[in-house]
From TrEMBL:
This is Family 10 glycosylhydrolase. InterPro entries: Class_I_gatase-like (IPR029062), Divisome_Glycosyl_Hydrolase (IPR052177), GH (IPR017853), GHL6 (IPR028212). It comes from Rhizobium johnstonii (strain DSM 114642 / LMG 32736 / 3841). It comes from the Bacteria.
Length: 702
């Protein structure tokens, strides 16, 4: 049977196989599936969802095929079956791509006793039992288990089965390993003892972050080389989690990962639906031309981990198709091959059907936008992964303000601030890129000298790449702001007052002052800068009789300037992104939108008018453009799961027509019909009728 797989020539793949792997089914087996699950049900799911690729559990913690690797635990329910191999064959008969999933994060007693060096060690020197299932042990991701044992497992799977890739889940480790081996290797490289806790100010912690980064990226290369030595077209595909690529050596990722997988499977707590698209933008921020696959769970994504439950169909479709809107490939995952609740099948099939409908238009185009939010990897790398969400509030607030303002935008990683990458955008936004190197600051300065515009806030450029505070902003000349003191806070009951007549302070009719931030920096504006807002000096918030200002407004709260090179800069020396994310004050949304429109210095290339909240994505080719309009309007927008889908009212889209072109056709891809349009002042105006979940407006030029 295995030889037949090897010789089945119609399933041979090319190195570009992943470009047509756009709709994925993932089935994660549980140990008793060999006896209980129904393979016919899953083959039918492949067909109903129009899946053209599948990811199947193969081995690692448990093998679902007859493994011969010593200490590779085989399911006790497998018997003489090979459920992994059988589904591989079934998928290949449907002309599907196949990826084998391995999970190396835990081992059983026999392996732990024979190889204690494979077990992760706690800070107190004890071997680490699994936090959720104490009968097994957590593996040391940084030692021989992942560098010696798992490559043998990977090679066995690739030799035996007709697959295109190996996908690893939970391969990056779970915190600091305090084994003697890790301690010795770490000290040899850094000179430090292992850090006892995450602490961005601790040199040992920072050194450990770098050491871990090197070990993990070396592992990507090792596993990928092992795969390609057997099947040259195939790859090792690491699960990148829900973050950006800050934890990896980008050169290794560039060489070994032809596409990237984001594992942020759904909304959790007070999370917005646009988070799905943001995941893809964050990966694309580093590798704009590399396909990105978004994993979606059919169950709720809460800390209590109801992994065998089913969330609402609308919630699944929200997550999958917001990814669709931003050009991400769809992937749904089901844990446990036995299906006691089948309510997920139809919603996933509908979402995948919508993905299939828009793929022919979107796949030929590249993401374009005039605006980029800089993803501050250099800053976020100083935070432990479990604490990073606090640092990201600045970026999340700016992100949501741009969504509300209906402005298409991309993300750009501060790891790749090349002239080519920067010059794709008219405006870049640094929500709180506090840590920037001299080289990164120089790249931004050169971008401004070439006519680019910048919006920055709070501590941006106040620290170097190692987190050390500077005496002056690294971008002081760019922002027209000299650092004086701060930050200070948390400060309550703060305000900023409108000052003079400037586009940034328009639209606040009837107000002399609006809410300020809670963390403040004192900055002195340069002579060529304007100050549309000034700080209102602090005054008490209790007793109520004392709640009044004692002094007139003073001190720059917004600094705006014309660069002289064709661009504009805005610096907001307080935590506007963070506080907007926490409070969602409408005045802060207006201030951000005003700053963006002024800094652009022109009417945006695309404007959309109408009611509701829409997540926009713009893609283009030489022949035309496609504007994705994803409907986020729902009373459950900020706390899921969504129960129902609220159809959006008609929208008016205005698009700037490229010089020398005219509109040949306006087409509504989902509705599958032509759209009426009018022309004037170098723009096309298109009426888009009510939007259910997603509509894609496709304009072609002549």
């Amino acid at each position: 049977m295995l030889d037949a797989r090897k010789q089945n020539t119609h399933t041979l793949r090319t190195p570009d196989w992943f470009k047509t792997a756009t709709r994925w089914t993932q089935l994660t087996f549980v140990e008793d599936d060999p006896e209980k699950y129904d393979p016919a049900f899953w083959i039918d799911v492949f067909k109903r969802t129009k899946s053209n690729a599948v990811c199947l559990s193969a081995g690692g913690y448990i093998a679902y095929y007859p493994s011969e690797v010593p200490y590779h635990y085989v399911s006790k329910y497998l018997g003489d079956k090979d459920i992994f191999g059988a589904l591989v064959d079934a998928a290949r008969k449907l002309d599907m791509h196949v990826m084998a999933r391995v999970d190396p994060h835990a081992i059983h007693d026999d392996a732990a006793k024979a190889h204690p060096e494979w077990v992760m060690i706690n800070a107190d020197g004890t071997p680490r039992r699994h936090w959720a299932y104490p009968d097994v042990w957590v593996t040391n991701a940084y030692g021989d288990y992942n560098s010696v044992f798992m490559p043998e497992v990977v090679k066995e799977i690739v030799r035996k089965y007709d697959i295109d890739a190996v996908f690893a889940n939970r391969w990056q480790g779970h915190g600091v390993d305090y084994s003697e081996d890790s301690a010795r290797r770490f000290k040899d490289m850094s000179g430090h003892a292992l850090p006892k806790k995450p602490d961005a100010e601790d040199p040992a912690w920072q050194a450990w972050v770098q050491w871990r980064r090197r070990v993990l990226t070396d592992m990507i290369a090792q596993w990928d080389d092992a795969v390609k030595a057997i099947r040259p077209h195939a790859s090792f595909i690491p699960n990148m989690g829900g973050a950006s690529l800050m934890e990896f050596d980008l050169s290794v990722v560039a060489r070994h990962c032809p596409f990237l997988v984001v594992d942020h499977q759904g909304r959790k707590g007070l999370e917005l639906g646009w988070s799905a698209g943001r995941n893809g933008k964050r990966i694309r921020a580093t590798f704009p031309d590399r396909p990105v696959v978004l994993i979606t769970s059919i169950g709720p994504e809460e800390e209590y981990r109801w992994k065998d439950a089913v969330t609402s169909g609308e919630e699944m479709q929200l997550w999958i198709n917001d990814g669709t809107a931003h050009g991400l490939y769809a992937w749904f995952t089901k844990f446990n091959g036995v299906v006691p609740d089948k309510r997920w099948v139809e919603p996933v099939a509908d979402a995948f059907g919508l993905q299939a409908a828009v793929e022919p238009v979107l796949e030929s185009m590249k993401p374009t936008a005039e605006i980029a939010v800089v993803d501050p990897s250099t800053t976020l790398r100083h935070w432990a992964p479990e604490e990073r969400h606090s640092a990201e509030k600045h970026d999340l607030g700016l992100y949501h303000a741009l969504v509300e303002a209906r402005l298409p935008f991309e993300l750009l990683s501060d790891q790749v601030l090349t002239a080519e990458n920067l010059d794709r955008f008219k405006l870049i936004i640094l929500a709180n890129a506090s840590c920037l190197s001299d080289a990164q600051n120089a790249a931004i300065r050169a971008y401004v000298d070439r006519g680019g515009s910048v919006i920055a806030s709070y501590e941006t450029s106040l620290r170097d790449e190692f987190g050390k505070k500077r005496d002056e902003f690294g971008l002081a000349d760019v922002l027209g702001a000299r650092y004086v003191s701060g930050p200070r806070g948390i400060v309550k009951n703060t305000y900023v007052a409108l000052s003079g007549d400037h586009p940034i302070n328009r639209g606040f009719d009837g107000a002399e002052r609006i809410m300020g931030g809670t963390r403040l920096i004192h900055a002195e504006p340069s002579a060529d800068s304007k100050t549309p807002f000034l700080y209102v000096p602090d005054f008490p918030d209790l007793p109520m009789e004392e709640v009044y200002p004692r002094e007139a407004p003073k001190g720059a709260a917004v600094i705006a300037r014309e660069t002289g090179w064709g661009g504009r800069t805005v610096y907001i020396p307080w935590n506007i992104g963070e506080i907007f994310w926490e409070v969602f004050a409408v005045d802060h949304a207006r201030l951000i939108a005003n700053a963006v429109h002024w800094a652009l210095g022109k009417t945006p290339r695309v404007t959309v008018k109408g009611k509701g909240v829409i997540d926009l994505a713009l893609r283009e080719s030489g022949e035309g453009l496609a504007l994705s309009l994803f409907n986020l309007t729902n009373p459950m927008m900020m706390k899921g799961p969504i129960r129902d889908n609220y159809v959006l009212a008609a929208q008016t889209v205005s698009v700037e027509i490229p010089e020398g072109r005219s509109v040949a056709k306006a087409w509504l891809v989902v509705a599958d019909r032509a759209a009426s349009f009018s022309l004037g002042n170098g723009r096309a105006q298109v009426e888009v009728p009510g939007i259910d979940r997603l509509e894609v407006l496709h304009l072609t030029w002549k």
